[in-house]
């Protein structure tokens, strides 16, 4: 089966940098994605790592190490609107079975 | 916005009654998913589909069945709803193989009394 572990909560100060880690165990692996979800809303796609290394999209970056079964999401120049839940997800099957972690609730404080 | 709609958006039902949630897409995407979301559990995969009439179970499939007779529609059925199935249900679609970029519907909140 698949399992993904993330911290349940993180608090950071506006303007700072925060890193949200994700470790996974899966029987097959194609890539790691990150999603953002605001309270009461639907998850929205942020980034995808299919290969080892860093992917940058504006203030957000995501990193993957296949050998360590580990990835992280890095949020820079935090804004109040970044307060949300963040989920990592793995694509682990030939038919694109996508499994999510339990999510990390990020609170940005002034 | 990607063309994905869920119906109904809210439903209250009683234990033991059948319930069907519908996911409709206008993107012609191959892959469709049903997840449930509960506090402390994140998004848990119920069933997914990789083509018309091609479906497979996720991690929490007991008590649920699905059907996909057309590319655009993916139905989730609770044959006999239980209170433990009270949840928010999200449908998602994806076009790409090997790049799990999912687009989610707005969600369906189901309450089973």
Instruction: Tally the beta strands of chain A.
Output: 11
Name the quaternary structure: heterodimer
Largest interface: A-B, 25 and 29 residues
* Distance between the amino and carboxyl termini of chain A: 40 Å
Molecular structure report:
- The complex is a heterodimer of chains A (110) and B (113).
- By secondary structure, chain A is mainly beta.
- Helices cover 0% and strands 57% of the residues of chain A.
- In chain A, strand 7 and strand 8 (70-75) form a beta hairpin.
- Chain A is globular, with a radius of gyration of 13 Å.
- Chain A has strands spanning 3-5, 9-13, 18-25, 31-37, 44-49, 53-57, 60-65, 70-75, 84-91, 98-100, 104-109.
- Chain A is built from no helices and eleven strands.
- In chain A, strands 2, 4, 5, 9, 10 and 11 form a six-stranded mixed β-sheet that branches.
- Chain A starts with a strand and ends with a strand.
- Chain B has strands at 4-7, 10-13, 19-25, 31-38, 42-51, 54-57, 65-70, 73-78, 87-94, 103-104, 108-112.
- In chain B, the strands form two sheets. In chain B, strands 2, 4, 5, 6, 9, 10 and 11 form a seven-stranded mixed β-sheet that branches. Chain B has a four-stranded antiparallel β-sheet with strand order 1-3-8-7, with no helix packed on it.
- With 113 residues, chain B is mainly beta.
- The model of chain B has no long low-confidence stretch (mean pLDDT 94).
- The termini of chain B are far apart.
- Helices cover 0% and strands 57% of the residues of chain B.
- The chains are: A mainly beta (110), B mainly beta (113).
- The A-B interface holds A 1-2, 30-31, 33, 35, 42-45, 48, 50, 87, 89-91, 95-103 and B 31, 33, 35, 40-45, 48, 50, 54, 56, 58-59, 90, 92, 94, 97-107.
SSE diagram, text form:
The complex is a heterodimer of chains A (110) and B (113).
Chain A: E1 3-5, E2 9-13, E3 18-25, E4 31-37, E5 44-49, E6 53-57, E7 60-65, E8 70-75, E9 84-91, E10 98-100, E11 104-109
Parallel strand pairs in A: 2-11
Antiparallel strand pairs in A: 1-3, 3-8, 4-5, 4-9, 6-7, 7-8, 9-10, 9-11
Chain B: E1 4-7, E2 10-13, E3 19-25, E4 31-38, E5 42-51, E6 54-57, E7 65-70, E8 73-78, E9 87-94, E10 103-104, E11 108-112
């Amino acid at each position: 089966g698949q399992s993904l572990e993330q911290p349940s909560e993180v608090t950071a100060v506006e303007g700072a940098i925060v890193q949200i880690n994700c470790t996974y165990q899966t029987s097959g692996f194609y890539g790691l994605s990150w999603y953002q979800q605001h309270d009461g809303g639907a998850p929205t796609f942020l980034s995808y790592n299919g290969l080892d290394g860093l992917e940058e999209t504006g203030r957000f970056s995501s990193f993957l190490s296949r050998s360590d079964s580990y990835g992280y999401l890095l949020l820079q120049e935090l804004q109040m609107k970044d307060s949300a839940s963040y989920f990592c997800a793995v694509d682990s099957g030939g038919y694109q079975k996508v499994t999510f972690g339990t999510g990390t609730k990020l609170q940005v404080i002034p | 916005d990607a063309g994905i709609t869920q119906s109904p958006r809210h439903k209250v039902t009683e234990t033991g009654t059948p319930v069907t949630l519908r996911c409709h897409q206008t993107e012609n995407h191959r892959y469709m998913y049903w997840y449930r979301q509960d506090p402390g559990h994140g998004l848990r995969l119920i069933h997914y589909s990789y083509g018309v009439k091609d479906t497979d179970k996720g991690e929490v499939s007991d008590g649920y069945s699905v059907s996909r007779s057309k590319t655009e529609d993916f139905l989730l059925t609770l044959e006999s709803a239980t209170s433990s199935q009270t949840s928010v249900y999200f449908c998602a679609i994806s076009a790409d193989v090997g790049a799990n970029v999912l687009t989610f519907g707005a969600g369906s909140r189901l309450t089973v009394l």
